[in-house]
# Entry
Amino acid sequence: MSQANIEKSEIDIVIGALHSDLTAFMNEWKPVFSQFHLIVVKDPDLSAELLIPEGFNLDVYTKSDIDRVVGSATSILFSGYSCRYFGYLVSRKKYIISVDDDCVPARDNNGSLVDAVAQHITNLTTPATPFFFNTLYDPYCKGADFVRGYPFSLRSGVTCALSCGLWLNLADYDAPTQALKPEQRNSRYVDAVLTVPARSLMPVSGINIAFSRELLGPALIPALRLAGEGKLRWETVEDVWSGMCAKVICDHLGLGVKTGLPYVWRNERGNAIESLRKEWEGVKLMEEVVPFFQSVRLPESAITAEDCVVEMAKAVKEQLGQSDPMFARAAEVMVEWVKLWKKVGSS
Amino acid sequence: MSQANIEKSEIDIVIGALHSDLTAFMNEWKPVFSQFHLIVVKDPDLSAELLIPEGFNLDVYTKSDIDRVVGSATSILFSGYSCRYFGYLVSRKKYIISVDDDCVPARDNNGSLVDAVAQHITNLTTPATPFFFNTLYDPYCKGADFVRGYPFSLRSGVTCALSCGLWLNLADYDAPTQALKPEQRNSRYVDAVLTVPARSLMPVSGINIAFSRELLGPALIPALRLAGEGKLRWETVEDVWSGMCAKVICDHLGLGVKTGLPYVWRNERGNAIESLRKEWEGVKLMEEVVPFFQSVRLPESAITAEDCVVEMAKAVKEQLGQSDPMFARAAEVMVEWVKLWKKVGSS
# Structure
């Protein structure tokens, strides 16, 4: 039921540094982060020196590390929010937790600080139940159970491979929504974790996630890059694309995806109205992307996340490649990513 | 966004009276129920006179009314929890709300009394979003919205036909769970409503529900009756069966099903250990029932709830009828129910 099941040495916390001064961020997270090994990946577009306070067990990776490991003859780009994926690549741990550098620990309904890492690990180490919905949410949560009518044969559940946390204060809306409702803040702390049912898709946000690197790592890829991608979440869809790949792959492999707790507190940043022009690009793409992922089926021969990504890349190229060069490029990156993942993993 | 959209005269509250003294129950609900028309259906097995306090606008139906309307040459049984279905049949309203007579209003996290009727009506009169999961739960809820990556083409949603509320204190567990964990009480108030995704099934509990009688009414049927069915919820599966029919029909007709708020406070009753022997019957049936409902598909020609029930009855008879006489009987009741629904509706 808790992170007691696993060793802290099996976890890497990966931080993509889009800001040079991480002092406040790291200090806010210190009670949690200081217990774990951290991988900090500096956005290669960031020139200023990183400021990181002492007291952490961490490795910092910069542009020169990326160039050394990945090489220059690559279509994979690690700039902006994509820099964190380099951390996923070089980690050797079983689990990865990743939180954006503009988020700090949230407080629950009782005013207590949320240990986001502990909650993510609980989510990943207790079963998921994708084949039948439990109306009392996560049946493995303390004080909860399966409700009347839930088939006993489905109660053992499946392994959870992806845990998607949420956000208080500034929610993860797109730029149009943010621009239309500039005052809107999320203050509703929903005290629940639930398994997203099999064959049901959702927009995974990269802001606050955790996953089994061992089982699902190769499926998280910075593949879809918008032409006008910027340094604000609402100017990106890389995590939404990656999340839909991951969900389809989890469904195929019989793995679970949970959403809900833990929350993080997301600080203000950027001007949604300025981003509006860029964001529509991503918004428009979703209209093609979602039906594709809803209908794509992977062959039975695909039995690992690597296999699945290669098959998914084929389908992306065939079915979406003609309609927008961004999709053709995404397919290319996916294939290259699997090669790179194997190479780095065996080195 | 609220019940302001609809007239109070469009709503019937249906109460199945399994206890003769409704005084405490009605008084607890008075601030809410006194604003609406009530249909009270007395369990035909109950001999004592009903005790109902004054101050309500209600119609009471008893065994003699059931015999008069339904006739005696019927396989439909209205005893026990099934009595409320007679109320669904004779109602002429657009919406029905039904709460068990051992439930009283719950309090939310701020200690305020929950208006369960208002919340159910909000659920039914705002769209449902079964085709893509919104990680911030009901996007139509005050202060919430669709998150980044949610396709704009799916944001208008579909009509919600069924709203399933939850329970604090005594949760709706089966007898084995209740017997194994006699001290377990549900104290987690999850402040959320969500659409159950299309093609995902859940065990609907009849304890606290609301539905569009107009769109879905004929699909709620007291069809599956256990041989040893008793007067305790955990001795029944009639609502679970009916709920699975309703969910499959909603998926087929493009209607939505929501779950979550409102909560009711469920009082103690019965001895789970004594019920254990009966309950295993229902528990075992679920192992056949769930795969059936997961795979059953309705023909395109079925365009109303009535059509769908008739088609579903055919499939039940064909695919389950041989394995247990209870299923064959359920199929028969479903066909008869549709005839009765049409007859009563046109009279």
Summary: Chain B touches chain A through 59 residues (CB under 8 Å). The mean pLDDT of chain B is 94. Chain B has one domain: 101-346.
